[in-house]
Amino acid sequence: MSEYKFTNQLSKETSPYLLQHAHNPVNWLPWGDEAFAQAKTENKLVLVSIGYSSCHWCHVMEHESFENEAIAEIMNQHFICIKVDREERPDVDMVYMSAVQLMTGRGGWPLNCFLLPDARPVYGGTYFSIQQWQNVLLQLADMFKNDSAKFLTYADDLTEGIKRTDIVSYEKSSISKNILTEAVGKWSKRFDTVGGGMDHAPKFPLPNNYLFLLRYATLAKDEKLLQHVKLTLNKMSFGGIYDHVGGGFARYSTDMLWKAPHFEKMLYDNAQLISLYSEAYRAFKDPLYKQVVYETIDFINREMKSEEGFYFSDFCN
Prior knowledge:
The chain is α/β, with parallel strands linked by helices. It is about 50% helix and about 10% strand. It has a 5-stranded mixed β-sheet with strand order 1-3-2-4-5. Strand 4 (about 110-115) and strand 5 form a beta hairpin. It starts with 15 loop residues before the first helix and ends with a strand. The relative contact order is 0.08.
């Protein structure tokens, strides 16, 4: 007899993230034709819930909502529920992340997107508290039952919006110095002149932003901007977002002071931060930046490199 009260179809998967949800009371299905065929047959909305194994808020939402039998009953009754590992299906994640960003102006994980049976998105968001989640489920179920035509309009509009985000236009005209100066001027109004970075929490390292600001300030000989870049790099490397024992940066800081890190370390963040601190060392000759570069490289090679020589996309200790 199984030690688990519930077992769903994710138990047949190999992804660590999907297997974490294999014994939820939610009747999770993996991404595939079977799930959408069932949605068409039963005429139900599809919930696609996307996350990854080291995502903190993914675990929180699972514990609060997906392990709750009353919530699971609502989900099972009114929706076809699909779990997706973003590291296994980045293509699926990219499409529905674009949809949620168009709807809400922000993105992140867990990513929860509701679709028509033909896979077109109609509503979505990221983390929901248990009460918010219950309200969303009941409202969407009621709307789909009583006014499903509205969902077709939503789907048409969102699908067109997603298509537009994929269109890249090229212009031959160059960007003038005046345009850059104006952009940096507006940007600088949101700088945190005490703690570095931007004037709000959470604070993300945003290495490409500061690489741009470093290069712009150097070329423009903008000493004030250079000092803000240096302040930001110092505060990050002295703060809790940086691992002073093992090296490497956490994904972001939950406070204004770079002190309280948000758990996981991402490969793409740390790779870009190596480049940022390398260029900063060349610009400022500060030995701290050289130390950060070498310690971060050591961390990546020690903790994020597989025996086969590949690198893992994230790390959570």
